[in-house]
Amino acid sequence: MKRIIVLGGGYGGILTAKHLEKKLRKEEVKITLIDKNPYHTMLTELHEVAAGRVHEDSIKIYFDQVFAGRKVDFELAEIKNIDFQNQKLISDKAEYPYDYLVIGTGCKPTFFGHNEYKEHVFTLWSLEDAVTLHEHIVDQFRKAAKETDAEVRKQMLTFVVVGAGFTGVEMAGELAEYVPALCREYHINREDVTIKLMDMAPRVLPTFPETLSKNAVKKLNKLGVECLTGQPCHNVTSESINFGEEVIKTQTIIWTTGVEGSSLIDNINEIKKQGRGRLVVNKYLQTEEYNNVYVVGDNIFYIPEGQSQPVPQMVENAELSSKLVAHNIIADIKGQEKREYKPKFHGAMVCIGGRKGLAQVGTPKRMFNIKNSFIALFIKHFINVIYFIQVLGWTKVWSYIKHEFFNVPNNRSFVGGLFSKKTPSIWTVPIRLWLGFMWFLQGLPKLVKKLSGGWDTYCKLNELPSTFINKGLICTAVGETVNFVNATPFENNFTVPNTTWRNADGFLNKFLTYINEFFAGFKPNVSTNWGISYNVKYVFAYYQQNFKWIGWLFVVFEWLYNIFIIISDWFMNTIIAYMAPFFEFMLAIGEVGIGILLILGLFTVLASTGSLILTFMVIVGSLLSYDGIFLAELIWYLVASIVLLNFGGTGHVLSLDYYVMPKVHAFLQKIPFIKKWYLYGEKAN
Question: Most CB atoms within 10 A, among 268, 349, 566, 593?
């Protein structure tokens, strides 16, 4: 059995393991992912946790969920060393032999030789970093609210972000957007808070075009961030930092100057490294020293053919490299041809708080600069959804949508507060009970009548209309018999049959009237309210008589038309005639069932979904009915059904769902198919 170990549970590591498992599921292969944490962290969103926009759970994904139902073993261990000669990984407690090794341990913050700065600054490269920073920021405001010394208070409320790359800009923007809420909570004037973003580079976002850099500065300034560039940052202590010759007193320095290889990479001497601890690989993403050792994501140092710079340390590189590494390992096992790494990157996005952003997207040959915040943030969220789909499917996508749009505090979303305002779920209980009783009272009389042997007519116009009588379109009134349109042999002279279309003024007949008026100059003197089949027959007859040079075409049309009529008549007269009573019976059961579930608050989301579907069917049926009546009360059914589609909300207040749904959720997560395809959603609070 071949043993494949993926070291590191970042984006690249997870995708590599999943690609391998998908292709080698039936092979004698053991795939193991090892990480020092039991969860994967979405590193690109750490600033949101640090600045209080989302809870830490929103960017944390446990590996047991990721690999549920898949032949991938997870080991919680911190690897201290790698013995490449004997092909094994070594931790404090165990050794892990391998035949193939994929290294994706990620990076750590770099201090450019000034490791003494570590004890004085806050970094932002792990979930723990983000949580610690968030607690510190809130604590600074809490202390400042009670501080009487003006100088000390100013120092407490001065925040410095060192490094004006992607992470620094996003952290500064997010913090600036968070400050007004903290000021309101602790009764501090916004003017007393200072946020500085500094870098020795000549401008912020130096990898972006200058026009985007200027736009970023403009947006940061509007949020109250002061951008300082072109001078080195030095003399870092717990109470101050120098920017050039200027001394800035602060108790909060956030270090985002860049990254270097992880601590484990520092201990690897057998493999060549370049570019701050990145492992040098060949075109197949194998290390040059060991052809059974591959590298993914940020640990790669590789300059593609025709390029002058190594591949960037970004999410898209992790995604593309994971596919190639998985393919090449499989190719090596099966004796197939390997592929070369030829990545094509499509740009990057930067958010400046939850409401502002910019992007550069496109193809390697043509990039587009996007300054419009709405478009840039839309792209960013779309990319994040793709990210989560690949890692944890629907479960995490729904969680992400809730955290970013529905539950976001202080309207910190690119759509503002349009989706984020919360309403206590208890206020939806009356509408749930009303809708439940309405459905129950709608279906109970029908059900009782059917069970007692009655129900000679299928429905009444003052009740919810049926849509499956008379070609599936017409609901008959009480006492009126159902007449199906019977097809007759094709002929030039025919009479309009006595059908339920006669004297009707419904939706389809109005449409047919317009058609008849269009052909008013060459139609017989008959009523305009024909059945639809006779409209078609008349058009055929007219063109067959007046355009004989294409008569052969109408012979084909007539042949196809007669086949259609035969089939449709058989279907209408046979299937629907027998199925209509059964359908009406099941419809009544559905109405009563939905009503009972809503009244009890049991499986509320499913009942609300059923109510929405049934209401939509009724609306369509009423519009297509022979008298075209639309019941105004259906609007209330529709609105109430939508209101109750509050996943985990309305059904958990004064309802049985409060007791039942946690057990259902736990049960669903035990089903292999549900676990594997991440269909269970988040556990309701």
Answer: 349
Helices 604-624 & 429-451, crossing angle to 10 degrees? 60
CATH code for position 407: 3.50.50.100
Average pLDDT over residues 136-151: 97
Q: Which of 360, 385, 420 is the last residue of a domain?
A: 420
Q: Which helix (H) or strand (E) holds 608?
A: helix 604-624
Six token digits for residue 315: 């999410």
* CA atoms within 13 A of residue 5's CA, in its CB half-sphere: 23
Q: What is the pLDDT of residue 484?
A: 32
Model confidence pLDDT, tens digit, residues 275-330: 999 999 999 999 999 999 999 999 999 999 888 899 999 999 999 999 999 999 99
Q: Which amino acid is at 443?
A: G
Any idea what the CATH number is for the domain that residue 24 is in?
A: 3.50.50.60
> In terms of residues, how long is the chain?
685
In the structure encoding, which two tokens stand for residue 446, read together?
Answer: 């029908």
Q: What share of the chain is helix, strand, coil (3-state, %, to 5)?
A: 50, 15, 35
* Distance from C-alpha of 635 to C-alpha of 674, rounded to nearest angstrom: 35
Mean pLDDT calculated for residue range 343-353: 94
Q: Please tell me the predicted confidence (pLDDT) of residue 556.
A: 62
Task: Count structural domains, the chain.
Answer: 3
Q: What is the pLDDT of residue 450?
A: 72
The Cα–Cα gap between 567 and 575 comes to 11
104 lies in a domain? yes
The DSSP line for 456-489 is: -SS--TTSPPPS-SHHHH--PPTTPPP-------
Residue that is last in its domain, among 420, 447, 482: 420
What is d(CA 169, CA 220) in angstroms, rounded to the nearest whole number?
A: 8
In terms of residue numbers, what domain contains 240? 111-257+344-420
Are residues 534 and 396 both part of a single domain? no
312: in domain:
yes
Of 24, 10, 6, nearest in space to 70 by CA: 24
**The token pair that represents 512 in the structure block:** 């047919």
Query: Is 282 found in the same domain as 134?
Result: no
Residue 569 pLDDT exceeds 70: no
- pLDDT higher at 142 or 467: 142
Q: CA torsion, points 520, 522, 528, 534, in degrees to nearest 10?
A: -140
Using CB atoms within 10 A of its CB, is residue 257 exposed (0-12), middle (13-18) or buried (19+)? buried
User: Using N-to-C axis directions, what is the helix angle for 507-518 and 532-546, rounded to 10°?
Assistant: 10
Cα–Cα distance, 307 to 299 (Å, whole number): 18
CB 213 within 8 A of CB 204: yes
Q: Both 283 and 379 in a single domain?
A: no
- In this prediction, residue 510 carries a pLDDT of 47
